[in-house]
Every structure is written in structure tokens, then in C-alpha cells.
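Q: I'm building a small set of examples for a reading group on sequence design. Run inverse folding on the following structure and report the sequence directly after it, with nothing in between.
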């Protein structure tokens, strides 16, 4: 028995409605929105019925309508980050500083191969720094200071030749400070106020990060 024509027309209309849920980047950002408490309504324009997120406030896209910036610094947001952020493969700037974001840094952020700046400072983020962030070979700015991070500074970071600024001060990191690669030029005060951090590693000697967790 053939389907009624109204049912066929309804199904066709669904395929024609532009929706962010057909856009993986929009899906990822809307998942972030749902994980955050937005007291000042800065995410009010994040409308999931739009064809892509490029018209949303605080989002910048390139000429191909791919998301390149998320600018939500100092926005009175609370909540947690989501693994879906790792799907923003063209993202260059992730700016979420000076909020009250809790929870951990998703390991999936290591998928953001075009990321230049990761600014999560002045939040309430806990857990360890994911070694997967060492995959960010375009990264220039890594600012994670003023959180509640624990564990060692991942040695994977020494292979990020583009890295110019690292600030992990005022956390609860432990172990030693890398001294090779980009860390040769990072000032020691960018590591201060980590009571369990034992100072620069001594190359050629056994690491004493083994009891650091």
C-alpha cells in the first residue's frame, strides 16, 4: 500500500529544513552550550535551527563556513568542557578564560591540529593536563594558569616547536619542569605557585616525576 501523499510531503520537508544538527561543528558547539550555565545569556544566539553556527555570537568562521574561533572569555559561564570540541577540526582559537568552568580538559582537544591558542586560565578546572595536547603542532599559546590542575607537565609538549607561551602557574602540578625544546625560553615564573613542582629537570639524570600523579 502506497504511503499517503501528505506523509511523503512531510518527509521531504524535513530534508529541506536547515538545521545545525546536520552540521557536526554546530552539533559540537550546541553540546558545549548545553553543558554550560549561562547566567548572562551570552549564548542566546546559539540557535540549533540554523544551518551552521557562523552567525552565532562569539563564533568566527572562515570563508568555507568552518569554525575558527570560539571567544567566550570572561563570560560568567560555569559548567564543564565537552569531548565534542575535538570535532572542530579548523579551530584556531579556543578562548574560555576567566569563567567558572569545572571538570577536566577533554583528551579530544588533542585532535585540534590547527589550534594556535588554548586559553583556559582562571577557571576551576581539575584533573591532569592531557598528553594528547602534545599533538597540537600549530600551538603557540597555552595558558592553563589559575586552575586546580594536578599531575606532571606532559613531556609531549617539548616537541611542539611553534610553542612560544606556556603558563601553568597557580595550580597543583608536580614533578619537574621540562627544559628542552620550546621550554628553553619559557620564564620560570610561568610555573610558580605549584607547591609540588620541583623545579627544572636536570638533563641526563633520572627523572623524578615517578611519584607525581
Amino acid at each position: 500500500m502506497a504511503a499517503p501523499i501528505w506523509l511523503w510531503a512531510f518527509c521531504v520537508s524535513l530534508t529541506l529544513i536547515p538545521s545545525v544538527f546536520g552540521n557536526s561543528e554546530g552539533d559540537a558547539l550546541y553540546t558545549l552550550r548545553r553543558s554550560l550555565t549561562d547566567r548572562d545569556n551570552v549564548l542566546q544566539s546559539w540557535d540549533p535551527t540554523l544551518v551552521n553556527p557562523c552567525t552565532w555570537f562569539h563564533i568566527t568562521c572562515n570563508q568555507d563556513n568552518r569554525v575558527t574561533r570560539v571567544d567566550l572569555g570572561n563570560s560568567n559561564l560555569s559548567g564543564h568542557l565537552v569531548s565534542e570540541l575535538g570535532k572542530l577540526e579548523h579551530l584556531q582559537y579556543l578562548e574560555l578564560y576567566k569563567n567558572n568552568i569545572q571538570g577536566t580538559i577533554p583528551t579530544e582537544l588533542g585532535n585540534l591540529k590547527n589550534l594556535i591558542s588554548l586559553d583556559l586560565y582562571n577557571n576551576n578546572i581539575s584533573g591532569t593536563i592531557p598528553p594528547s595536547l602534545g599533538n597540537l603542532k600549530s600551538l603557540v599559546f597555552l595558558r592553563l594558569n589559575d586552575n586546580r590542575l594536578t599531575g606532571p607537565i606532559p613531556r609531549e609538549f617539548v616537541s611542539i616547536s611553534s610553542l612560544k607561551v606556556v603558563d601553568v602557574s597557580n595550580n597543583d602540578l608536580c614533578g619537574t619542569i621540562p627544559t628542552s625544546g620550546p621550554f628553553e625560553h619559557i620564564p620560570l615564573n610561568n610555573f610558580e605557585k605549584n607547591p609540588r613542582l620541583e623545579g627544572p629537570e636536570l638533563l641526563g639524570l633520572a627523572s623524578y616525576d615517578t611519584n607525581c600523579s
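The chain has one domain: 24-191.
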